[in-house]
Amino acid sequence: MKKLMFMASLVFLLVALLAACTSAAEPETTEPEATVAAEVAVEEPSSEEQAAEEPMAEAMDGGGTVVMARDSEPLTLNPIGASDNGSIFMIVQIFDTLVETQDAPIPQPALAESWTVSDDSMTWTFNLREGVQFSNGDPVTCEDVQFSIDRFADPEINVSYGGFGSSIESTECVDESTFVIQLNRVEGAFLDYLSTFIPSVIPKAVYEEMGDEAFGEMPIGSGPYMVKEWERGQRLVLERNPYYWKEGSPT
Questions:
Q1: pLDDT in tens, 60-78
Q2: Residues 6 or more apart whose Cβ sits within 8 Å of residue 34
Q3: What single string gives the DSSP state of each residue in 165-187?
Q4: What's phi and psi for 242, nearest 5 deg?
């Protein structure tokens, strides 16, 4: 009996050894893990969306139309007399100033291509840029500059921001390209004040012919854009000024 049990155990041991050898010789293979591909679906824009995007793309390339909504419309497009953001935002598109701070923290040349100041900081001499035209094709003259700055300096006209021009004592056109401002005190922020929208240069003859109110509705300036249409409460349409002096602008 014991012999029989010994033989059975021996057979079981041999079978176990054989299974182990087989396992070592032929290792168990497993299927590689499945690779999960995450597909990102890109939704094609609708024809309406494409139509809305095309004008913006064209405008960024230097053409086309940009349509934008604002929460307030201008009250006037007359630089002196404007005190609301709706007006100011559009005025700076239509007019130029002697100096500007649009692309730099300090005043840069604009209608004045250069300037000098006396040792006592009381006399400022501006060399006016040649060949600049208003959007109606008329040249920007020293007389137009003087007319605009005198209005800026007059507290009875510039009632909203009279302090900005209060340091101006007198102005003079030495010749067609030389404009001089004499101050009544040293004004550290003088050039900054000149770069605001208030002393924007306007055509004297056109303003005097149209009058203050009409000029505020359909002004003429030398800035990058000009007024094409203004339907109050609905829309204000600006178009490129074909005579704008900055090469390659507006973009």
A1: 455 677 787 877 889 999 9
A2: none
A3: GTTEEEEEEEETTEEEEEESS--
A4: -65, -15
The DSSP string of 187-217 is -TTHHHHHTSSTT----HHHHHHH-HHHHHH
Higher pLDDT, 26 or 193: 193
228's enclosing H/E stretch is: strand 225-231
* Token pair recorded at residue 37: 């591909």
Alpha-carbon distance 93 to 228, whole Å? 13
**44, 47, 50, 54: CA torsion to nearest 10:** 150
The tokens of 31 are what?
């299927």
| Separation CA 186–CA 98 (nearest Å) | 19
C-alpha dihedral over 42, 43, 47, 49, to 10 degrees?
-90
Cα 175 to its chain centre, rounded Å, is 35
